[in-house]
Amino acid sequence: MKYFRCFLFFFTLVVFTTLACIILAPLWIFGLAWTPGGYIGKFWANLLLFSAGVKVRTFGMENIHPYKKYIFISNHQSHFDTLVLLAKLPPSYRFLAKRELFRIPFFGWALYFAGHIPVDRAKKGDFHKILDQTGAVLRKGISVHFFAEATRSPDGKIYPFKPGAILLAQETHIPIIPVGVVGTRDILPKGAWLPRPTQAALSVGKPFMVSDDSSRLLEILESTRKTVAALSGQEPGESHPKKTLRKSA
After folding, report:
1. Rounded to two decimals, what is the model's pTM?
2. What pLDDT was estimated at residue 126?
3. Which domains does the chain have, with CATH numbers?
4. 87 burial class (0-12, 13-18, 19+ CB within 10 angstroms)?
5. Strand-by-strand arrangement of the 199-204 sheet
């Protein structure tokens, strides 16, 4: 059963990702991919979760108004976080992801055609470009999502947040919704290749507006991290292990 489930998942991944790319490519050329891209992504994610044997429970979905736009901020434990979020959040939603993912044939192309936002983590000067890109998506009436730690947690703790989402909220005056993704680390831990059938959960917090006071940035970041930690059941970490190792080397 285990090997059949893995075969079903990868077969679904290859076939339906290719189909999504083929459908979205001509729509993107004519600037028509935004709305269908959201629904195709939602169908694709639900299909992959089903094929992997993953069931997702949701909490707090009443906090999301279907016709309003938000800046979502969540924790990040696994590649399956993206599938859970795509499957359960409204289709008018796009996320930021590392640029390397967009270079994967068909998979990355489909992400790009659907309007998701590539981030080059090696370029510090890319920050203002990211704000411009996310701002352009928001102006289309579409919500954006930040994995605020900027990378997957290596040990299950939730580490300090990057400021991009908060700065975007200050600039656009769009409410933030904190989101906790639970259980995805058990599906596909960092470094693993084969998904394990299990249950995950998505817990959505209440939206809030961000103060324009730049002196409160660190306070807002930490308050938001604590909220996401409570929603995800994670223990906050003081400093990212990778950074600590680099400093002590």
Report:
1. 0.90
2. 67
3. 2-238 (3.40.1130)
4. buried
5. 55-59, 199-204, 176-182, 71-74, 143-147, 93-98, 117-119
